[in-house]
């Protein structure tokens, strides 16, 4: 593949193809750099990726003014934060999420919020109340979801930056596989979720979306760590971007064959070629069987909406977001606002989640799904006794057209999460790395690891990426 | 899930639905719940439910007063306020 440095438009040539680590090391003229960035924002907005926010340029701290974006569901002080929903339109959080605070303290600059499916309910970002991000490779196609804006921006904006996305059931991996970006979803509890507008508490994870594995690892270093504001966070060693250049001689990589059978032939073949590359690099490739693969998706679509339906109870036309004169009884007022403010998919999932937790159905649906989840976790735990990393396609198909998505039934749309739901239910780390093209659209290689074994997937991803070479990104 | 049941659940979830929305949801729910019933085939006898993906221990912190969000800041995002309080609909 040809280096993107050879063909970037003149005015940003100086910074084009520059990695995050190069930005941090080099003496960048920050005023000049942000001038170039500013010139690109209108176009990025038009493509449906971002809502710019006010920022102050700074070059202090170890990040030296590195630009960041946050998914629209991550709060940052005084910046409009809507989680893709009309019901939160106008909301300006009076506080920083822990990840936003960490970015600012390290000398990063948050310049935009990225568009997403409403409350992260979607697989194509077509459920966003404000816009639909267009795929940088083909504007008829979607960017995936729910972190679609971030996945599109990563590829379309040819200037070093880090985007923070969020994954509940695959909302980092699936969109990046559709746009040719890299997305790193850490183990549940590695990154604080304080200030994240929750979707499902036992599943939500914040992670970086970038152009390279190294950039993603740097991003994770900045945002990870224990936080007294989030009880589920744990102490991890960090240093994800350190010592990336290991060989794969002692690495065992498992191939879950079911994942390849579920995928379309073109995607499956492309990922098999990537696995061959890993084998040639010395990795020990082994077949593994994951029995619970087919059960994961229905279990996920019971658990996630059940948790979401309680989380979304707080949006009722009071305190922030959409509001009217609070007249009539509270029940009438709340129902009216929620009827107006929530989009179709949000209503569907709140109704669904309320139903599966109701007396009489709780055992059949909700508790049953949680038991299936336990079996899925055990399934992965057994696999990781044999291998260090699992490698599979990230999504079963390449990015579909926006029209196609709009014509799909809910269950058909949910099936785009088929390969990412299992590992997300298990809360295990995963990274999607672009590994080739099918029908001129990017295909993602999904590398999955055991709890807190981020270093394994980062190492394999980085080594693969080096062998693959740089990608010729489309001009946007 | 029939129309009556949709209405009951929507009322529990406090969401006003139009007739058109109710009809659409009826079809959607039938499909989705049918798809969920696949889980019935999986043997989960003696399996504990996994409420969390990893083991989480309860951690207590010292009970001391710390700085929190100021009242004016908390009230900045709404027009419905009075005497330093949020104003809401009647609970009667």
What features would you describe in this structure?
- The complex is a heterodimer of chains A (476) and B (92).
- With 476 residues, chain A is α/β, with parallel strands linked by helices.
- Chain A has a single domain, classed as Amidase signature (AS) domain (Amidase signature (AS) enzymes, Alpha-Beta Complex).
- An eleven-stranded mixed beta sheet of chain A has the order 1-3-2-6-8-7-12-13-11-9-10. In chain A, strands 4-5 form a two-stranded antiparallel sheet.
- In chain A, a hairpin with a 2-residue loop joins strand 12 and strand 13.
- In chain B, 36% of the residues lie in helices and 4% in strands.
- In chain B, a hairpin with a 2-residue loop joins strand 1 and strand 2.
- Chain B is mainly alpha-helical.
- Chain B contains three helices and two strands, in the order αααββ.
- Chain B has a domain of 36 residues: Orthogonal Bundle (Histone, subunit A).
- Chain B has a two-stranded antiparallel ribbon with strand order 1-2.
- The longest helix of chain B has 18 residues.
- Classes of the chains: A alpha/beta (476), B mainly alpha (92).
- The interface between A and B is large, with 74 and 54 residues.
What does the secondary structure layout of this molecule look like, with pairings?
The complex is a heterodimer of chains A (476) and B (92).
Chain A: H1 20-25, H2 30-46, E1 50-52, E2 67-71, H3 98-105, E3 109-114, E4 134-135, E5 138-142, H4 148-156, E6 162-167, H5 173-179, E7 182-185, E8 205-210, H6 213-223, E9 252-256, H7 257-262, H8 265-280, E10 284-288, H9 293-311, H10 330-341, H11 344-356, H12 363-386, E11 389-393, H13 402-406, H14 410-414, H15 421-425, E12 430-438, E13 441-449, H16 454-468
Parallel strand pairs in A: 2-3, 2-6, 9-10, 9-11
Antiparallel strand pairs in A: 1-3, 4-5, 6-8, 7-8, 7-12, 11-13, 12-13
Helix pairs in contact in A: 4-5, 9-11, 9-12
Chain B: H1 3-12, H2 19-36, H3 71-75, E1 81-82, E2 85-86
Antiparallel strand pairs in B: 1-2
């Amino acid at each position: 593949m040809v280096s993107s440095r050879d063909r970037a438009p003149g005015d940003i040539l100086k910074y084009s193809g520059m990695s995050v680590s190069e930005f941090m090391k080099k003496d960048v003229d920050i005023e000049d750099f942000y001038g170039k960035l500013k010139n690109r924002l209108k176009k990025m907005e038009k493509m449906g990726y971002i809502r710019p926010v006010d920022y102050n340029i700074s070059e202090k701290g170890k990040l030296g003014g590195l630009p960041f974006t946050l998914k629209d569901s991550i709060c940052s002080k005084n910046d409009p934060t809507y989680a893709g929903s009309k019901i939160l339109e106008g909301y300006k959080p009076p506080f920083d999420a822990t990840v936003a605070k960490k970015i600012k303290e390290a000398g990063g600059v948050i310049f935009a919020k990225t568009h997403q499916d409403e409350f992260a309910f979607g697989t194509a970002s077509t459920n966003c109340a404000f816009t639909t991000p267009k795929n940088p490779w083909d504007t008829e196609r979607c960017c995936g979801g729910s972190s679609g804006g971030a996945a599109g921006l990563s590829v379309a904006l040819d200037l070093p930056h880090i985007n923070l996305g969020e994954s509940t059931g695959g909302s980092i991996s699936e969109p990046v596989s559709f746009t040719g970006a890299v997305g790193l979803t850490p183990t549940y509890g590695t990154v604080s979720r304080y200030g994240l507008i929750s979707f499902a508490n036992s599943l939500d994870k914040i992670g970086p979306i970038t152009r390279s594995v190294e950039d993603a690892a740097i991003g994770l270093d900045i945002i990870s760590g224990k936080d007294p504001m989030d009880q589920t966070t744990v102490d991890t060693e960090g240093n994800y971007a350190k010592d990336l250049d290991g060989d794969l001689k002692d690495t065992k990589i498992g191939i879950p064959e079911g994942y390849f059978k579920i995928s379309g032939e073109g995607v499956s073949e492309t990922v098999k070629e990537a696995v061959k590359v890993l084998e040639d690099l010395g990795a020990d490739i082994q077949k593994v069987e994951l029995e619970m693969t087919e059960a994961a998706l229905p279990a996920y679509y019971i658990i996630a909406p059940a948790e979401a339906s309680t989380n979304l109870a707080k949006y009722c036309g009071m305190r922030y977001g959409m509001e009217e004169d609070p007249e009539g009884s509270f029940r009438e007022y709340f129902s009216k606002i929620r009827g107006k403010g929530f989009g179709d998919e949000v209503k569907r999932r709140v109704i669904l989640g309320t139903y599966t937790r109701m007396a009489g159905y709780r055992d059949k649906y909700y508790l049953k799904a949680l038991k299936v989840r336990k079996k899925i976790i055990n399934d992965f735990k057994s696999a990781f006794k044999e291998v260090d990393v699992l490698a599979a396609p990230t999504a079963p198909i390449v990015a579909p057209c926006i029209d196609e998505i709009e014509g799909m039934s809910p269950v058909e749309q949910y099936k785009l999460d088929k390969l990412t739901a299992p590992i997300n239910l298990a809360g295990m780390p995963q990274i999607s790395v672009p590994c080739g093209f099918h029908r001129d659209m990017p295909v993602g290689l999904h590398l999955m690891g055991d709890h807190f074994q981020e270093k394994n997937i980062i190492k394999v991803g980085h080594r693969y990426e080096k062998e693959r070479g740089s990608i010729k990104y489309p001009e946007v | 899930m029939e129309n009556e049941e949709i209405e009951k659940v929507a009322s529990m979830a406090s969401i006003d639905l139009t007739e058109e929305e109710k009809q659409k949801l009826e079809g959607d729910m039938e499909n989705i719940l049918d798809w969920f019933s696949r889980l019935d085939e999986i043997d989960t006898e003696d399996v504990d439910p996994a409420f969390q993906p990893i083991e989480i221990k309860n951690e207590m912190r010292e009970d001391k007063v710390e700085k929190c969000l100021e009242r004016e800041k908390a009230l900045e995002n709404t027009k419905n306020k009075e005497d330093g309080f949020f104003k809401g609909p009647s609970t009667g």
